Amino acid sequence: MMLALSLGRRGQGRTWPNPAVGCVIVKAGRVLGRGWTQPSGRPHAETEALAQASTHAQGATAYVTLEPCAHHGKTPPCAKALIDAGIARVVIACADSDPRVAGQGIAMLRAAGIEVSTGLCEKPARADHAGFFARIEQDRPLLTLKLAASFDGRIATGTGESQWITGPGARRMVHGMRARHDAVMVGGGTARKDDPSLTVRDLGVDHQPARIVVSRRLDLPLMSKLARTAQDIPLILCHGADADATLMRTWRDIGATLLEINVKGGQLDARDVMRKLAGHGLTRVFCEGGGALAASLIEADLVDHLIGFTAGLVIGAEGLPGIGAMGLSHLNTAPRFTLHTTQTIGPDVMHHWQRPL
Hints:
Layout: H1 2-8, E1 22-27, E2 30-36, H2 45-53, E3 61-64, H3 78-84, E4 89-92, H4 104-111, E5 115-118, H5 122-128, H6 130-138, E6 142-149, E7 154-156, H7 168-179, E8 183-187, H8 188-194, E9 210-214, H9 225-228, E10 235-239, H10 245-253, E11 257-260, E12 263-264, E13 267-268, H11 270-279, E14 284-287, H12 291-299, E15 305-310, E16 320-321, E17 338-345, E18 348-354
Parallel strand pairs: 3-4, 4-5, 6-14, 6-15, 8-9, 8-14, 9-10, 10-11
Antiparallel strand pairs: 1-2, 1-3, 7-16, 12-13, 15-18, 17-18
Helix pairs in contact: 3-4
């Protein structure tokens, strides 16, 4: 099952709206087939592994990281494919909460006389599929918020200079994190100030995550890197109903997808942003700021993973803070996260925090 989990992770960031599943087929101690969900969500992991195993799948055991699907979508049910291949036993890491499956895949397998076991490596499997489960159960994608800051928590000097606070090792790791998410998200201020491309670079990967900009009025540079690449790499713009109609039409014409978001307290409602992104099919979003967007996501209790890269330099109080104003008066009302891991990356420290269970 650990091999199946590692295979499934190869699809992270590439399979949305489907989960990134892994499957291994074994008989008499030999691996006969390996598969993982392919780009855009199909073919599924089970059919990929069965294709490798061919007729040797008869009487074999299949290890799958998520309950095989039981419904007819754009492809036939994977549960039926396992039955038709003559699989004798299926070991499933965790059940699927999608109402179209939700135990029906397991029931179909058992009805065909196949031995089914569940719960092997369930905890890491649920972690791997957390984005898919969040979309199905909470109507939002899993959200990772990343901040790269000085020792005193500043992301830029008072004049706005921010490149580079952290070293090349940390930046390379961030590109790897981008690649494992469906989309990279920033606020409108960051898009205007930094002119980011939000792409994965220097890792040899052959795909790019979607890019998201949260900007109420769509007042973004039309000659920016994001605009120039909108035809080639998906660009999603979250805006308010009061955005200029001409700007909306222009952004659509150059290839962007526009999502209208409710306004709350003068800014775009963070919960509605996540709801609309889930409706667009996204399961894993990697947010890189800016401060106002980060604060709104934390205040709305939407951050699942908080990843900080801290550099050994000090900028001072005039520098730009990584997280905007949150109006807190008492420590007991401050959001708290649980430390997951720490790691030294060259001259910097990476610390990974998770929402409390």
